[in-house]
Amino acid sequence: MKNTQHIREIILAMFLSALIATSAAGQDVGEIRNLSSVLHVPDMPSSLSRIEMSWDAPEGDPYGYFTLFDTSPGHTFDLVNTADMSPSDGESAVSPDFADSSPDDVAYYFHIAAQDGWGDIGPTTTAGPFRIDVVPPSPVCAEGPEITSVRTVSLTLEAEGASHVLLSNAGYEAGWERIPLLSPVQWTLSPGGGEKTVQVRLSDLAGNTADTQLTIFYMVGDADADGAVELRDALLILGMLAGNGQEINPDADTDADGKVGIREAAYVLGKTSE
Fold it and tell me: For the chain, what are the domain ranges?
């Protein structure tokens, strides 16, 4: 009887030793090392709708990895929430294409934990937030004067989510100038009178853009900048040429040579005689 009891004690001791060894083996799987995104910068908006992650294996003997992309900053892998999951091998992962849900600056996180050959799970490591934004600034508001006699005009440019604006007098393919999105925005029209088209491209921090344009008529010859070309403007120009010290609108320049003189006076006289 004593021998039987002794055998049972030996078997129990061996079982407990094996259980402790198994538990210790699971603890040998450490934290994921050098976890990083290939293309995304944490907490920086991006229009790239897939997140690619890479990492180095932890200390120990990892059998595979449990991974998850979601919008929660806190997640811990355990035996319950991994019951229906199969660990992946390799040391990289790519998210689904989040563009399918049209995220407008949505923060995503990546969670990962290693599993050893005994089925034990190491510590969970989380990276992020990775902010995905594929939605252009909207709605767009672009307003300016219909007619101007000065080349530098004030434009009201607004769009929800926009951080800066690109403006051009030369079309959408060239001549862009990047300007902080302030209100109002000061913009200089191209030289020479007539109808001017200002191309407007509003952009957000992720690089999404929304295009629109403004049409402004630039009226030259208006020496006193009162919004009309009249005989008085010719007299002001002639007086200035005679040296009477009269200040006139420098943007009355009609031939884009950077000067206001006899040609502008002749233009005004011809205009008023029509």
Answer: 28-132, 140-218, 231-272
